[in-house]
Amino acid sequence: MQLHTVQTSVHATASTALPTAPLRDPAAPGRLGLLLLCIVVLWPLMVWAEFKPWLLFDERSMRATGRFLSDFVPPRHDAEFLRLMLAETWRTVAIATVGLTLAFVVAVPLALLSTARLSISALTGRMAAGPYVLRQATRWVAIVLRSVPELVWALIFVRVVGLGPTSGVIAIGIAYGGMLGKVYAEILESGDPSTTQALLRNGAGRLQAFLFGTLPQCSTELVSYTVYRWECAIRSSVVLGFVGAGGLGQQLDNASKMFAGAEASSILLIFMLLVGLADRLSAWLRKELG
Amino acid sequence: MNILARARCKACWFSAGVLVLIVASFWSLDLKWGEFLAPDAMRKMARFMASFFPPETSPAFLAKTWSALLETLAMSALGTLLAAILGLLLALPAAKVHAGDPARTKPLARLLLNALRSVPELVWAALLLIAAGLGPFPGTLALALHTAGVLGRLFAESIENAAPGPAHALRVRGVGELRVFLYATLPQIWPQVISYTLYRWENNIRAAAVLGVVGAGGLGQMLSFHLALFQMNETSTVLIGMVLLVVAVDALSFLSRRLLNR
Q: Under an 8 A CB cutoff, do A242 and B25 touch?
């Protein structure tokens, strides 16, 4: 008898714990309130950003879009156009490569000057005031170079040197130079300091200590970061084409301004292929070298 | 020894390849170094740089720059939010949700995400100008499309890496897939969703600042407008606003990381 009641009570609790009909979400009021709050916060943002989705369905823009998109298939693929595209693709890659080479030239001195790892005064207590100020100043130079986006650098240099790849190359060189310089310095500081410090303590020069103490530890990381940035530079180089630096971007800009859908879709496809290829190559290189 | 030799060889092949690429690039581009480094160009450059000073500081223009800055911020925030929603919607078909899931839509959804991701924001903006006209709206959409590709892939990976227990418990009781996702998987990946989204927002503020160069609103549009008219003092104010925005975002993100990691 006793046993029987225990059993029924177990059944009872089991059936309340696992009801057949799904319960209502207990947190529903809170979630709804949060959603409401989000909408209240979002409203001014939508006004500032002139967020008007119905403009997309306006008859005139629909017609233009429709014509542009219907032109997308088939992409333009005659031999002459493809030859031009091949040349422009190479131009894009070349701008990225030359730009990154310049960036490397800018970044190496920035990194060497700003890394605290090569400080001799820091070996015994705190870094001396002069070198500290110099290192911080170099770091700030790198940050400023990096803070202005490469597109803005390109816009400015297009005014100085005119249209063509030179402005794109310089823009990538400056913006990526700052970026690489800052990250190189950080990578150099992330490794184990003991080798470098031992070399410096025993009278090695800074450059020697760097070449034989710091660099061997960090070289794979430095190379893999540089390869990754090369991949980013290819993407940037396409974007820089839009302000007149040449390459695929400029072609795409022309095509979209002339509503030439077939050309635009062809360029987009080539571009996706290029980015995918660079992505694969850089991943493979980083794996092989890492 | 053999391994060392092979590693060395790999490194020298790599260096040779890089060297060839660099030389070929320098050789094939018609770079105008002469024009850039000639004393005449230097003088021109110096005059050009000097024309940026002083920045325009009339209250009316500052107010205009401020509203463009707000527009940039609004574009980036809305674009990122839309991207997060679109990314979540695309992440579900792009993920193998559980071991028995045939995931038929996965290759197609991944292809779509890759396509969205590989086209930069600026290129999307240039294409969207046709559909949405000039102004911040195509910029917002462009940010949303590119970022949706990035976030969708990250979210799909989070979904696949979520612990399967809670979802399985609901699934065996016959709860539908949507509710399994909402009540078992989503709460688990929520912290990741938030942190990826915030990270992309940070990137998007920087991207939104320059998007306008093709006519898609914000500070960039003001910049290219005044630069095209050679109104250098105005340009310089806009540039300062842009750099301040980027630096402020960097500093905020650095500070918040430091606070959260303490």
A: no
